[in-house]
Each structure stands twice: as structure tokens, then as C-alpha cells.
UniProtKB/TrEMBL annotation, chains A, B, C:
Family, as annotated: Belongs to the metallo-dependent hydrolases superfamily. Uronate isomerase family.
Enzyme nomenclature, EC number: 5.3.1.12
Underlying gene: uxaC
Keyword Cell membrane attached: no
Protein name: Uronate isomerase
Length: 473, 473, 473
């Protein structure tokens, strides 16, 4: 049992070597007040659109929606029902939020040395002013304290948005989304909340509920989508609308970055088979690969930055998926091949100065082998920051050490928090900024970069690169 | 030529940074007296079962059985015959052990910076009290000195077993093994020596001598095994016997962790083909993949922990294999895919609280990409420590840095020495404990873990995790 | 904008930890005066063969031929035409070298933290005595200064060759090369400039201009090459000639290290199809795989060391290739598999003491998984130093940490600079020597290697290993 006060080390993420640590502090001090640029993430815009919105109980805020926490707790034998996750089979889920919080606190030691542990400690300390470590003894007290705060207007999503000094926040929205929340936010003056066009639910033919997703899209565009040609037209219309609503980027996810150009006839035929629900083997992969090409083509035309997030098997655990649905911590990364898979797309659009492509994957063996060389050659490619499991102290260090020598700093896209956990945003940026400054301090103390350059590079990593990459200037 | 005394640095494996080093020492001091838990290894139980057993000459103890040494010496042009390895073609092997030792000592510099070098220096110093470096000049003197000691009862296997403070030692035994050695050890009170059920020789249809192995199994169970159904029954019987004899785990090795559920008919048909020696393409892989499923099913039923060691091509060098046989240092790792290969097995048993699976591989690119995410989700998966070539200072550091942030400490299985070199056991645990403590000291000095937590984590890594993972409490 | 003087830190590449740094300096001081051994590279021998040769303008020396610089500048949107690269489509390329230099200087910040940046700073400082940082303000002044120096005899290739203290320099030459440059160099006494036999242009049937390359070979050997048998004979003749001209090694590059032994009939049939330009699917891969076997067979017979450079997709960007040709920075690495691909070759020649094979790849995930175990077993395999993108501070540290524990120091081939940028040779060796000494200092300060051993290992890495590996003693 811990006996000390909860205290975040002011030196966290910094090398213990005194000279490097001192310099890391200097770099960090020079950038720590910069606003947060959040060009990719999953915050629900409804949270911000409604001034009366509240986060709910501490359990609703911290535990129930966070698949990072759920997966770890589940991995140590805690049933998701006990964490309040509703089931599709009608088996009862715990509804006593204070009890769920107690269970969580008893297992908080599981997060020792993990990014979730670091973020949570930062949130409790710096957002809410908790000054005791979270454990079974303190759980109840801290729950009550948080519950009180969360009811206050000062802890509403809107209030925290301002307090967090977020300069821009991009949400991620389905192709069929009417963007009502963004519209009302913009009308209130929150123009820094921008949508991102994510058409996975309709371009990946194996997306759960594809037919229903398409129906929603039909409803949004007000037209029947009975052919590939009308499908493409609908997507183009929607992109134009998103752009009008402030979007500067799109995003697509797939298991593999395979790209291929189908003929219109082939694309029509696959789309027709999808509508009848009778796909042939290879149809899904070929259509997704083709739609990467089409989305790139549209990006050339409308200037939206294209993002690809590849290499995850979603819903690896079928039983869990059936009972609890997606996003419960059961997505597992896959190895990826970029060099050959992206070649068709890059041969078509890789030299086009109107095009911009940001790549994300979780196969770190591709950092130095494929991603950095690709970004270090093609004028259209930038590398996204370490994604998901690698959004961590070590993940960032590996990224810096494996990417930067070959890609160069200016072929990277800065940081994005990629989170649906709104309250964790400052903590996540804080880790990135600290690790970046410590890496730069290491370069300077090892004589590889001048100290003056280090300040510029720190600012770029903390702020400038993300704005430039996502055309948010 | 070295002129200094052989001296193991008390700081070995620790960062040169003084604050981190001091803390690493503190953590290490807190756990260095804990008994050794050895839940997986290849020590011959006959060594311990016979009170009169001796290790033989220094060459028989250190060189002839150690494929880590053989491979390195062979790689630098020393024929295995010159190291006393018997040949199948009748070509003469050196029999003068003092001469072999001299040859080894002349090449001991080849092990600079390798784990074998570190272990050997530790063994010579701490087990035998050698205080000079091993080289061509000292070889004869050290040989004579060791030879004298090895004849003494204080240096018998039994005596060292006690001196090493081994709390539990699991051997690895064929499915057909009658476990006579374990039986006599238990009768003498050595109940802490436990068998492990390893059925590779009969479940992998391409195992060398498969038919003979099956005959041995028939002989042990006292029944003909002429069908797949009787084969499964025999394995179940043997598992029950192993469990009665103290086994808490099984182990299986294969080139790939491919898992697949065959129908009983398919399994019967393949097994029948194996008996006639006329396998079809794919039979071996499918049967091994199916037997992974069956072994998991049996583990659910009998509670034995299941281990998988995957991703090695055995006997890569055919000419060497023909002349000298297996385990002479010619096994080479392969890349592995876990995410897709394990899915059938995990879909069937991955959520079953009665099941426990420990994974080992030598493809480090899967640490952060596949293994840590799998262990960080499935309640049934633990990750084994760095295996074989990666049982080294850097191998462990990579493991800690690439696994722990995602899997969390408590989804790992602590350490096991996996060795047939009994005398090296304390040295191997020593390296693990030192590297672990240094890693923890790094986390604390970088503000990522509290110092108090570090002590708990050090103890878990040195002792508790292995006991829990292998149900040795 | 930098305001300080350009100053290379004397501590560059060394750990900031004072004890490790001090020891790294001591190791470095002990080896920094050793001559440079350059057993593999792409320096044009004509540069040295002609005593009147000059490097041309600073732009011709530093920018136009350096695909490391071109790729980074291109990746940030600078057209290759603006850098003076001639086009095949007749579009005009910049010819004002002073203007190109200015453009380069304005973008020199892109090379912060990259090996190119480090080498260039070293070259400007230590070869040319430039004492200001290169940027838009200083560009013109530095250009004029360099232009003056480059016209002087003291800065001729020959003069620098002597000043650089190069003990041996191996060039890389096509199978059809008459080696006239080497011949005249040898006649002048420059016997330390040796050719290397690289037959890619004729053994890889998909090499650009394969038919013309074969015609050149026919012309050199003075015989028609109309069959596979005469082709093999021609290669054997040429190897004998290269050997007579001082060659000690061959080199081959391919996308994959796939090896296979074809029957003479199969080889004849593929070769015949190649002559008619009508290859079947698989012919190219099978023929290259077979020629690896044949080159190994010839190496057994003539004693030339065999090098394999595998795992790069050449000319990934078709549009760029069409306009600007090869070697403009558009080659992208691929993942590689060595364990299974090399097995046929190693089964045939891997134990033959007359054979020696040095392996290079850019898939770092194979360092610890495949390459180090292969080198740590087969007496014929050595590992080449980190190649191309990984010829960098971090690339070397990864190599040392991932290779050495398993392969051992003496199964590696030291350093080679692999460069066509003659003036960068000392800078490249300097980085290697520094990183090696810092790595050794880390081993000693962590108690893993004795200080005395460190001096021997430093010398081996800086000098001895390369000489032994390439039989340059």
C-alpha cells in the first residue's frame, strides 16, 4: 500500500543524466505553454455542443468508455459486466458506479508503468487536484470528491475545453454524419472544432452493418445509392460538405494498406454484389484497396489531407464482441507491408503537390524499414505520430530513434492524441512534449544537434508540425 | 592477454548513471536472497535422482553439452570433433578433455559481451571460486582446479541443488516418460522437482523418429495406439499421470503457432496416414495446429498450464545434423505471426478462466505488435520471458521496454532459465534480476513509477510472477 | 538562424554520462589514428586514376551525385531539376551551381539529426576548414571559398586520398568492366585500390538493359554468349581477371535472398528465354536464386569473398525513374526472410572452409532473429555493418545491441562506408568508430566487458575485422 502523497514527478519522462535532464527541462519550459493542436481524435462533439453537458459520474468519465482500461482489467480476470459494460445477452451489468470505481481502484496497480497509468495520474492531479494515490483505501473518498467536482460548471466539457487551451480539435465523423453538432458549435463561435471525413463504414464492404450504413448515407444525401457511380458521387458530395464545415482531412482504416486501381466495371460489379450481399472472395480487399485510390484522387481534387490507419484486426475476440460489441479492448495489431502495397497509390498520386498523405501503423518494424524511407522520398507523405499502443514513453522513443534519422523531422506530422477520452488530452500532449524534449536534449548532449536548433525542433514537434500537416494554419 | 584478476563487477548490468545505479542496487539487494523458481527448463532429473551422480570433467560439465558454446566455437572454424562431440560417421572425436578445455580457453575471447560469457564468468567465480580469467595461459591450471572440486561431494548435483536455493525445478519430459527419476526424488522428499508434459515427439508428425516415439508411448500406456481416438486417450492418461507426479504445466514447440480445429474424421484420417508413413502436403501443419487445440482443451479440463514455444527452424544445417545430431547450435529462428494464427484457439478457449497459456517466441518484432496486445486483452494469456538467444542483457531490456507498457507487468510470467546447464541456473537468474532491477530503477528515476512500487515489482519479477503463472503456490 | 560558429562537438556520438563518455574518449583516442580500410564502396576509380582529375564545383561535389541529399530535398517539395539533375524529357535543369548551392543551404536544416547532416558538417569542417554554419546567409560565401579550394591540387581526389590515410579502397565494378582505371593505378603504385566483381547487370535478368549489359560482357570476353554454359564460363573468366587485378570479393544485390539450385537444363532454358526476351513468371527470381548458388560455388573455387545486399525495391517511383533515372533516392527497403531463403545455399556451401559470405540487409527485425543466429552458427557467414539508411548513429547502436550478443564480435565484418561520395569517407568512418567506442564504453561501465578487452574490441571494429573479413591482410 502506498503511503506517500500522489505526486507527479516534475522530471517525468526525462533522462536521469543531469545534463540531459536540465536541457530537457529548458526545452520543455520553452514550449509547455503553447496551445494544444488536436488534429485527429474521437471526442464526441455532442459533449461540447451542448453547454449543459456534463461528464456524469467518475466511472462514466474514466472507466466505462475507456477501452485501454477495460482491456487491462479484463486481461486480469475482471468481467466487463463488473465494470458496468452493458451486455447484448441481457446478463446484468453492474450499475453501482461507486462500486465499479472501488473495483477499479483496487486494481489500479495493474497500470504501473503503462501510459494509461501515467495519464490517469496526470488527470487526477492536474485536472481535478486529487492529491492522494488511488487505491482501495482512498477509492471512496476520491470518488465522492470527483463526483462533487464533475457536477460543477467549472468541470463541464465546455469549461475544460477552454481551460485546456485547445487551439483546434478535429473530430472523426461518419460519411453520413450531418455534422449538426459542429454546425451549432460554429454558430456559437467554436470554429476551432472541425469534422474529419471517415467513410470506413461504407467503403469497407465488411464493416459491421454495411447495408444500414449505406442507407444512412442515402438518407443524408437524399438519393438512392444503387450503383458504384452514385456511391462515388455521394462521397464527393459529402466531402464537399465536410470541407465547407471546416474539415481539412479525411481518415480511413483497414487491416492492410493494399491499394489497387479497379476499372469502373470491376468496381461496379463488386458494389452490385455488395448490395445483394453476395460478395466473392477478394471483393472486400480489392474494393477497399480501390477506395484508397479513389479517396486519394478526391484529395488531389479537393485538397483534404488523407490519413490511413492500417494494420489492426478489429474484434479479435468473437465471444466478447457478441456480448459487448466493438471498442472494448479486443483489437489486436497485425504486421503490415507498406512498400509494395502503397506503390500503386504512390505511382498515381505520390508526386502530386496537391496531395498529402499521413500514415499510421502499429508495426514498428516498418518504422525504419519502410515508413521513414517512404516519407524521406515522396513529397506527399508524412508520418503520423506513434499510434494507440505505441502512444507511450517507450513507443515515442522508438519512433524518434527509428524514424527521424531517415525521414527527417519535417516529414513527420507532429502529435495527435487520437482519443475519445476528452479529459486525457492535456496529459497525452504532456507526455509527447516531454519525451520529445528529452529526445532533443539527448541529441544535443551527444553533439548531434545544436542547442539553438533544439528549441526550434521542440516547437515544431509540440505545435507547428501538426498545424502544417493538417493545413490548420 | 588479460593481466587482471577475474572479477565480476558488482555493478554489472546496471546503468552507469549514479542515481539509477544506486537505486538498482537497492532493488537488487531487496530480492537477491529470494529462492530461485525454475518453472521451465531442461535439467536431466537423473542428475539429481542419483545421490552419487557427479558432473564429470570440467569439459563434460561446461562444454560438451552446451550448444550455446558449441555454435559459437563452430562458427569460428573449430570442428565439433575437436570439442569432443561424437560423430555418427565414425570419424574420431577428441577424447582428451584437458585438451578440449585448452582449446576452449584459447577461444574464450569469442564470448566477450555475450550472455554465455557472462554466465560462465559468474559460474567460475561464484560456484567454483576461480579467481583468474580463463585464457590459454590459465586453462590448464583452472582445469585441474575444477577437476578436483568436481570430484568432491560438495560439488555434486545434489549438493549444488541445495546450495543454489532452488525452491522448485520443473523438468521437461516426453509424453512416454515413466518419470522414474521424479518418483524416486519425491520418495526421498525432493517434491520440489516436478515434471512437465512435452508431447512434441508424438504430436508433431514430422518429429524425428515419430513412429518409434509412438511405440514408446504405446509401451508406456500398455496399449496399442492405432487410431487418433486411442492416441488422444493415451495423451489424456499421460497428462493425468504427470499431474499426479506434480506437473503443473505442459509445453509444445512448433515452427509456427498456427492453430486449427479439425473434425474428428479429418484428424483420424491424418493420423492413419501418419501410421502408414504416407502424409499429404499440409498434414503435418494441420495436425500440429489441431493438437494445439486439443492440448488447450485438455488444459481447460485438467488445469495444466499450457506453454507454446514457437518460431524456430530446428536443424537448419543438414550436414551437421547428419554427423552430430540435434542440439548442436544449428537451430535458427523464424519470423512468427501470432494474431491470426492463435485466433482459432483463443476463440475457443481464450476467455475460459480454467485455461492458462504462456507464449514464447524469438521474433522480437511481435513483442509490441502482437504479444503484448494479446496478453493485455485475453485473461488466459501470459507472456514468457525472453527466450533462448534473447535471454541476455539487451534481450531483456528490449522485452521490458517493448512489452510492459502494453501488457502490464502482471500479464507476464516472470523468469525461467530454460537451461540444461544446471550449474548456470543461478547466473541466469542473477542476470534477469539485475536487468529487471535496473529497468525498474530507470522507471523510478524517470518519474514513471514510485520507488515503493519498484520494490513490489522487483519481487514480482524475481519470484512471485513465476510461481503464480505456473500454479506453484 | 544559427548565430554560433560551426563547431563539431568533440563529444559527438558519446553518451552524456561522464564516466562512459570519458572511457569512450579513451577508446576512441586509441584507434582514431588507424588507417581507413574501405573494403566496399562505390567510388569511381577514374577519379583517382587521372592525376589531373578535380571534383568540380561544390555543387558537383556535394549535391548532384548524392542521392541521400536529393531524396530529402525532393521529399520537401524541391524539384530535382532545381538541383541540377538532368532530365530525360528535355525539361530544363538548373545549371547555375551557385544558385543550386544557395537552395541547398536554405534547406540544410532538413538534415538536422540525420547522418547526412553529420557527415556534411564533418566534411565542411575537417576536410575544408569551413568554420561557419551553412545557411542561406553564409551559402554564397562558403560556395566561393569551397570553389577556390577545389581548384587547388591539395584538394584533388589523389591528394585527399593520401590525406585521408586510406589503406585500401575497393571499388565496385560491372562484370564487363575492363578495369583500365585500376590497371593504370596499379602501374603507378596504387595497388591498394582494388576492384570488386559485381555481376548484377547480367545475372539479374530484370536488370535495366540486361541485353546490352550482356553484349558488353561478350565484348569484354571476346566471345559470343549464346548459352547458359558460355555465360557461366564468361563469369568465371572475368572473376579470374578481377582476382588477378587485386579483387578479393564479389557483390550481388537482389530484392530477396532466395536461393535455389536449378538443373543445368532449367538454367539453360531460362537463359535461352531471356535471350529471346520472353521470360516466364518466376524465371527472374529462380535465375537470380540459382546464380547466388553459382557465385557461391565459384567463391569456393577461387576464394573470392561473396557479398549479398538484399531487400531493396529499386526505383519505387516510376515517374521519377522515367525522368531522372536510377539512384535519385527512390529506392525503398523491403522486409526480408533469410532463414529459409539461404538454406539451400548454406546446405551446399555453409560448412566449406574455403567459402566466406558477408550479408547485408535493411530489415532490422532480422538482426536478432535471423542474421545473428546464422552468423553465430555457420563458419562461413559474417555480418556486414549497418547498411544505407542504417549507416547512422542509431542504426549502429541498434546493430551493436541486437547483433553482438548472439553473433559475437568476431562474426562481424567491421565497417565499410559503401559510398560514392569520396569526400565523406573519413566522416563515415569517424561516426562508426565513435559509436563503436561509445558502445564498448557502455559495456565496460555496465560491467559486461573488461576495460582491457574494450581496447582490443575497439581496434577490431575500427580496423582488423574489415581486413580479415575481406582477406585484405
Amino acid at each position: 500500500m502506498l503511503t506517500k502523497k500522489l505526486a507527479l514527478s516534475p522530471d517525468r519522462c526525462f533522462s536521469p543524466e543531469p545534463v540531459q535532464r536540465r536541457l530537457a527541462h529548458q526545452f520543455f519550459d520553452s514550449i509547455s505553454a503553447l496551445p494544444l493542436v488536436c488534429p485527429h481524435g474521437h471526442v464526441d462533439p455532442a459533449l461540447l455542443a451542448n453547454p449543459a453537458a456534463r461528464f456524469g459520474s467518475p466511472t462514466e468519465l474514466f472507466i466505462i468508455p475507456d477501452h485501454y482500461l477495460l482491456r487491462m482489467l479484463y486481461s486480469r480476470g475482471i468481467p466487463l459486466q463488473a465494470l458496468g459494460i452493458p451486455t447484448s445477452d441481457g446478463s446484468p451489468a453492474e450499475t453501482d458506479h461507486r462500486k465499479i470505481w472501488q473495483l477499479f481502484a483496487e486494481h489500479f496497480y495493474l497500470f504501473q508503468g503503462t501510459p494509461s497509468g501515467l495519464w490517469l495520474k496526470d488527470e487526477l492531479t492536474n485536472v481535478f487536484g486529487v492529491d492522494e494515490p488511488l487505491n482501495s483505501r482512498t477509492a471512496g473518498y476520491i470518488y465522492d470528491y470527483l463526483e462533487r467536482l464533475l457536477a460543477l460548471p467549472e468541470f463541464s466539457p465546455r469549461a475544460l475545453f477552454k481551460r485546456f487551451n485547445i487551439e483546434v480539435l478535429c473530430t472523426t465523423d461518419a460519411a453520413s454524419d450531418t455534422l449538426e453538432n459542429q454546425r451549432s458549435l460554429h454558430e456559437e463561435g467554436f470554429t476551432q472544432i472541425r469534422p474529419t471525413f471517415r467513410p470506413d463504414a461504407v467503403v469497407n464492404l465488411d464493416a459491421p452493418g454495411w447495408r444500414e450504413n449505406l442507407t444512412k448515407l442515402e438518407s443524408t444525401v437524399g438519393k438512392e445509392i444503387s450503383t458504384y457511380a452514385t456511391f462515388i458521387k455521394a462521397l464527393e458530395e459529402r466531402r464537399a460538405f465536410f470541407k465547407k464545415m471546416g474539415a481539412t482531412a479525411t481518415d480511413q482504416g483497414a487491416a492492410t494498406p493494399y491499394t489497387t486501381r479497379l476499372s469502373d466495371q470491376e468496381a461496379e460489379a463488386i458494389f452490385a454484389r455488395a448490395l445483394t450481399g453476395k460478395l466473392n472472395p477478394g471483393d472486400v480487399e480489392n474494393f477497399t484497396g480501390h477506395m484508397f485510390m479513389e479517396m486519394a484522387r478526391m484529395s488531389v481534387e479537393d485538397g483534404l489531407v488523407m490519413q490511413m490507419h492500417c494494420g489492426v484486426m478489429r474484434n479479435h475476440n468473437p465471444a466478447l464482441f457478441e456480448t459487448f460489441g466493438s471498442d472494448k479492448g479486443a483489437d489486436i495489431p497485425l504486421k503490415i507491408e507498406w512498400t509494395q502495397n502503397l506503390r500503386p497509390l504512390l505511382s498515381a498520386y505520390g508526386n502530386d503537390r496537391r496531395f498529402s498523405l499521413i500514415l499510421f501503423g502499429m508495426d514498428e518494424s516498418t518504422y525504419s524499414r519502410e515508413l521513414a524511407p517512404l516519407a524521406g522520398h515522396y513529397p506527399t507523405i508524412l508520418l503520423g505520430p506513434p499510434w494507440w499502443f505505441h502512444d507511450s514513453v517507450n513507443g515515442m522513443e522508438r519512433y524518434f530513434n527509428q524514424v527521424m534519422e531517415t525521414a527527417g523531422l519535417y516529414n513527420t506530422a507532429g502529435f495527435n492524441d487520437d482519443t475519445r477520452a476528452f479529459v486525457s488530452i492535456p496529459a497525452r500532449h504532456n507526455v509527447w512534449r516531454r519525451v520529445a524534449c528529452n529526445w532533443l536534449a539527448g541529441l544535443v548532449t551527444r553533439g548531434l544537434v545544436e542547442e539553438e536548433e533544439g528549441y526550434d525542433m521542440a516547437r515544431a514537434l509540440a505545435y507547428d508540425l501538426a498545424k502544417v500537416a493538417y493545413k490548420l494554419d
